[in-house]
TrEMBL record:
<protein>
    <recommendedName>
        <fullName>TSP C-terminal domain-containing protein</fullName>
    </recommendedName>
</protein>
<feature type="region of interest" description="Disordered">
    <location>
        <begin position="203"/>
        <end position="282"/>
    </location>
</feature>
<dbReference type="InterPro" id="IPR028974">
    <property type="entry name" value="TSP_type-3_rpt"/>
</dbReference>
<dbReference type="GO" id="GO:0005509">
    <property type="term" value="F:calcium ion binding"/>
</dbReference>
Amino acid sequence: DGFETGNFSGFDDFSANGWERSGDAYFGLATGTDFDGYAARAGIVSDSESTSLEVSIYTEAGYVEFDYWVSSEDRYDTLCFYVDGIEEFCDSGQTPSDTHSLVQGDEFLCPTPGSYGDLIPLTWVEDGWSDCGDTDGDGVSDDENTSSVWQVQSGHAEVWVDGGDHTLTWTYSKDDTVSGGQDRAWLDNVMIPYFVQGEGECSDNTDDCNIEDMDDDADGVDDVDDDCPTDSSEQVDTDGDGYCDNQDADDDGDGVYDYNDDMPLDGNETTDNDGDGIGDNA
């Protein structure tokens, strides 16, 4: 799943219950130059909190693969992947810039020396402790008042799973003190091993065959582009809550029922007093 539907409607697979979000904040969606279109982004959490994205699905034996990005306190604020509750992968921290003028290999040059001199370990930068002097006199040491030293850390993970029913969970969690970087994690291009045959190679209409059919409800819209792949009368789930718009009393998930909402498909708008089709906020 590359999240290119712009929501969490789930996989093109009858056995998946769709994405489930939980924790002290919910995963959302983000775009950016580092991502392939949309990516899932961890919710904003505080110390001792966590946020999770999960899917329960039947898999063939093979590798679960995904791209990830993380910008956090090294070792303590982590993005971890679990299979059936067992931790299989974790990463944390940031990547040092190779172009910053104060970065010298694995050390940081203090513009004003502190009690440790003018060179400190790069890992001490933005770690919550004052190790350099305070050149601009703003009350914050140079090593805690710098930008662009650290960049978002990225990677690709592969984890083997046996065939069968599994619950796959990605969790960003924080310890009880200190933050680092953007204090966020991102996830994209999730690939899960399950068998897919070509169109028309399935002999009946049972659920066992839906995984082989690229358009389960035969509405002319491929499942990958259909928010409601098993309902031929619907293709859109604007707020990604698992209820397609025709059955959803609040399509855009803004807390205002559609019959009271002048802009029922725009979660940022609820009124259009002049009736011109443009919400009042715009």
